[in-house]
Description:
Blueprint: E1 6-11, E2 13-17, E3 21-27, E4 38-46, E5 56-61, E6 64-72, E7 75-79, E8 84-87, E9 92-96, E10 101-107, E11 115-123, E12 134-138, E13 145-147, E14 153-158, E15 160-161, E16 164-165, E17 176-182, E18 187-191, E19 197-208, E20 219-221, E21 238-242, E22 248-265, E23 273-275, E24 278-280, H1 283-295
Parallel strand pairs: 1-20
Antiparallel strand pairs: 1-21, 2-3, 3-4, 4-11, 5-10, 6-9, 6-11, 7-8, 7-10, 9-12, 13-14, 14-17, 15-16, 17-22, 18-22, 19-21, 19-22, 23-24
Amino acid sequence: MTSRKIDRILKSRPTIEGAGVHLKRAFGYSQVPLFDPFLMLDDFHTANPAEYLPGFPWHPHRGIETITYVLEGVVEHGDSMGNKGAIGAGDVQWMTAGSGIIHQEMPRLSPTGTMWGFQFWANLPAAQKMMEPRYWDVAAATIPQLTLASGVTIKVVSGQVNGTRGPVQDIVIEPEMLDVSVPAGTEFRHPVQEGHTAIAYVLAGEGHFDERRDPFAFEMVGRGWMDVARRCSCGPETVILYERTGSEIRVTAGEGGVRFLFLAGRPLREPVAWYGPIVMNTQEELRIAFEEYEKGTFIKRR
């Protein structure tokens, strides 16, 4: 198998979203279409309740999927289809907005005081942008966890590892979503479909994410102009974008091990028209979506 090389490394940046939620944005609007079919990755991690309790009050989505993964804390949600619930530590919510949904995501006061989670946005192809909305509320207990002979542990949300499939299946962009922990000094190898976009986001520890040990072999984005300690190993709040050629990734953990989220999916290679919480293919489709929202005709299926 041929090992994928890193295309570029980005450092997440602080921003404020929703009604005042403090978070780190790993990538987003300005990086389109580099991460195609993924649009955005936000990391919300704080021990200050004032920075997460404002939450994300009622807002619309159309044309995308939102994937929320909670590591610590509790997030309540509700939507225009009448769904209500809460996700806690280890749970995932995979929402296909499709033709349109109005929902809210409101964190509770965390039992530990700390809120830590992630939200990805994945694009939908033109042919499915107006599909019927749907949910997967995935409880932590239903997410399979594998321990390999090397000591590597993997939680499989979608995709498969060694024949074990995650609970989220039959998604348009054929995604993989894994939570991977690699012990110190251990190498993790994982096959990736040729041509698919592959991304790693480091949660803890440090590691090398390809076989090279040259920090100038790829582009680094989002670091300070005087960040002269350029390194080829990657630590927390770092996103690694791989080249699209190669049939596997190779990750070697540092002295303290490394934990990361791994995402892969089929690129759409379609025009992106994006404004706020709505992502379509043309500006005209955006205009229609916002006009419908104002007129109260945004929701197509109830």
